[in-house]
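Lab notebook: predicted structure, single chain.

Context: the supervisor wants predicted structures on file for every construct in the current expression panel, including those that have not yet been purified. This is the next one on the list. No modifications to the sequence; it matches the entry in the shared construct table.
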Amino acid sequence: MSIHLVKLAVGVRDVAHLGEIQARRLERARRRGEEPRLRHVTRNRPRRAGELTAGGSIYWVIKGFIRVRQGIAAFDELTDAEGRPSCALVLDKNLVRTELMAFRPFQGWRYLADEKAPPDARTSGDAFHGMPLDMAAELRALGLL
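Prediction complete. Output recorded below exactly as produced.
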């Protein structure tokens, strides 16, 4: 059984914006001559790294809801500009939309058990009967969905 991470996507407007940010990061890496690996850098290496790379994902909280996930492929050990060690989560490039799940703000990241993770969304058109995702999020927050 795998485990997952939950992380706030601070400053991200929506799933498309997250995709744009990540595409720009990959392009900058290509221009610098680096291997274009999609990475999210964190200060500490997760203690349950083995479980995370065995089918785990990072679930992104955008505007109060888990909306999307990405598979975690590996971990890279890095050193920052001041010489301190850090860890980079190597992410799958595919953004997989999930059913909306409210999540309160927090710092850092949290583990998420597989059975508590929101399921992948069906299709964007039929997940909420064609309803705009922001409207569905608001109705879900009010307990109406």
